[in-house]
Each structure stands twice: as structure tokens, then as C-alpha cells.
Fold these 2 entries.
Entry 1:
Amino acid sequence: MSGFGLERQRQIFLDGLRGRKPAIPIQPAALEEGARRVMTPEGFAYVAGGAGAEVTLRAKRAAFERWAIVPRVLRDVAARDATVELFGRRLPAPLVLAPVGVLEMAHPEADLAVARAAARVGVPLIFSSQASHPMEACAAAMGDGPRWFQLYWNAVDAVMESFVRRAVACGCDAIVLTVDTTLIGWRPRDLDLAYLPLLHGKGIANYVSDPVFRASLAEPGDAVERFAATFPRPSLSWADLPRLRALTKLPLLLKGILHPDDARRALDAGVDGLVVSNHGGRQVDGAIAALDALPAVVEAVGGRGRVPVLLDSGVRTGADVFKALALGAAAVCIGRPYVYGLALAGEAGVAAVIENLWADFDLTLALAGCRTVREIGRETLTRVD
């Protein structure tokens, strides 16, 4: 859509003339603070917290500040095209909603509200394995909206295989295997509260709705205990990938890639895309920031265009989106911000966060002197540290 940013901006200011301010804060810090006020301490800790001393949690944002956009002027940017194509779908903007588990900690409608918002705006939602509603219900809420499925390869291969079959059956466009969370990292905010929502039966809707998982239960009340025994898979290795690759013809992405050698190995294994991510700073404290890892991963797979490389972790503004694309990302994944919007206003809050980010990106695109995503190259940035 040409000029989406200008249209969004104009509408907000026109609403201001009528005495209406945005219901969802636009500044990232205010958005997070608003969510903190309405969420339970346990819910906010689970969403906002990181591993260890949260060094990586801070580093993922600091990485964006090490790059500066160098705008070009007088280039006629009146007509712009922010669209991208991913796995056969033309998307209105280079935005994808990352998989976030246990969304019932933010809002009762959880994944269903997010699914409706994503479909309304037209951006893909990556269903989480740890969803609060089954993937089939989320798919039904999206109509023909684009969706992918994020897979945690648990300790029971038959359950993993059932999840993949269900994702295919409910119209997912891709499978995203998370490879950096075969164990849960050391997360002090959750530990201080002695609270892990999964052990309270939250975020396990895809398990309790799964026929293979249910068949393993001696009693219905055993679901949480069985899940706890099923989830960890620290033995997962490259040798396991062919089994997943053979299960489906859907595009397969690996999420959690930070090292270029792992990127090359993934391509050798027949993977169709990568998500450069440190899991939002929730797994390895002191790990490299995702944006810092991105250029080497893109180079390792042969540059932009060979396979899509997405950037996850730390994106908050349109400038962040621009910088990630300039460094080789095909699109970016958004996580915590849409959860904060969900906490504040359900479906409407999620849609507002997506649309605000899209508008910010569109205006940044224009003001940097670019008319299309294809025009965003490495030459549009300079390193400032």
C-alpha cells in the first residue's frame, strides 16, 4: 500500500482534533509500561524477562544503535511499495508475528485475538507450539490469512509428527523449528516468583488437543505432568533433521541461528529459510545480539535472495526494520510489542501495534530516500561505534 504511514499518521492527528488520543501507546517504552500495569507480576515477568543478568536482553536493543541510517534526498518517494514476498505470499510489509507462548498470561482471548489481528492486517502469524488455544482454532480465526507453525521438537517423536500433520492440515505455509530451546534457560524473574506457567497448565493447548499426546495419558489429569516430561529434548541434533524434512513438503525454517557455520549446515540439510534469533535474550545470557549476527549469516547462505533470512529479537521501530533489511534480512519478526498490545486491548491492541510499526517503517523508507524494500541496501547504513 502506497503511503500507509502518511495515512496512519494523518488519522491519528485527525482523531486528536476530536479529542481522541491513541488508546495504545506508540512509544515502545510506554507500550511496555502500559502492559506491565495491567498484567499480573507473573505474566509480565514471563513475557518481559530474559536469561541471567539480562545482558543479552539489553544487547539486542543496543545493537540497533550501532548502525545509523544515511538518508538520501530529492528522490521522488511519493509512490512507495513496502511489500515483500515470502513462500508464495505477497505481504503488505516485511513483518511477521513471532511465536509467543502462553498468551493467556496477557489476555483471555490469547492466540485467537492475535490471529484475528494478524489476518486483518495481512501479516503472517507463527503459531506457537506453546499456544493457549489449539492451532486449528487459531487457523479458523484467520480465514485465509497467512500462518506458519513453530515447532518445539519434544522428547516424543510421535507427538512432534502429529503437530506437523496438524499444521499442514490447518493451512500453515511453513514449519519453523526452534533450535535454541531444547532446554529452558535460567530466567531469574520467573525463578524469583517460583512460577512457570506451563506447569500450571497454561500454554499447553496444542498438547491436550493432540490425539497422540492424549493417548499417552493414563488419566486426563496427568496432562501437565506428562507435558513436563515430554518438553525437553536436549539430545536434538543435526542428525534428526532429515526425519522432519521427510514429514512435509512445506518450507522448513530453523529459528535460533546465530553462527554462520550453522547457517551453512542448515542449507546443506535442505532447510528453506532461517530466523536469526537469540530467543529475545531468554536463553543464553551474554549471547551475541541477533542484529550483530545477521550479516555473517546472510553472507554464509550466499547473500540476500538465496533463502529468506529473517531477523528476530529486539525490533521496536520502523528504523529497526529498515536497518535489519539493509543488513540482509528478508523480513523481521515482532514479539513482545504485540503481546503488550494484546494485554492492553486484545485484538485491537495487536492490530494497532502492527499498523503503527508498519506506518513507522513506511515513513522511514520514504525519508531515507527509498521507494521499495529492494532499494534498501547496505549502502543506506553506516556503522557508528
Entry 2:
Amino acid sequence: MEIEQGVVAVLQIVIVLVVMFYWNAKLQSLHWCRFRCSSAVALAYTLTAHRRYRLQRRASSDINALLHDNLAGIRQIKSFVREREEHARFNRASDQLRRATLVVMRVWAIYSPSMSMFEAIGALLILGLAGMPR
């Protein structure tokens, strides 16, 4: 089923590109340039995203493991008066998770609006060029 959908999607893209080129080659070329630029930016984001998300998942895993160990061993922590040390360990793990999450959020906060802006600028250029009298 997925192969059929993929073939249909590729055929639709090819047919639309051919029709666009037939109607107006200049507009089609401008659209193709915009499409390639946005695809390159999306590919760059996608290829580097796994590193950022992996760091965030590791930090989350570390803090969850620390919480599990501390809750399971609360009697030992209290009997050896290790509350301060365990609190400091938790703060370090929490800070690592915060930093990893901020990296993910910062990159997304730049990527998402910039892609929307480039899409809007491209549409504006295409509509402006198409609306010009010949």
C-alpha cells in the first residue's frame, strides 16, 4: 500500500511540474529554486536533529534513573545522611536536562519560523511575478 501511495505522490509532483513548466517556465523555475532551497534547509535540520534529541533523551533517562534509585534507596540515603549530596546530584542531572531541552527548543525556534518566512517570501515572489502584466 505504501509503495502505491509513494508512486502516486511522485507522479503527482512530476505532472504538476510539467504542467507548471508548460504554462510558465519562469514561474516554474522560481518555484523550483524556492523548493530546492527549503528542501536543503529541511534536510540539514533533519540530519542534525538526531544528535540534539539524543542528548535530551539521555539527560531525561539519567534524571529518571537517579530519581528511581533515590526513591528506592530513600532509607539508606536518610540513614547515611546523604540528602545534600543526592540533592546536588539531582540538581546537576536536572541542569543537564534543562540545557539539552533548551538546545532543542532554540534550534526549533529558529528553524520553524524561518521556514514559514521563506515559504511566505517565495509565495509572494511567485504571486508578484505572476501578477505582473506581460
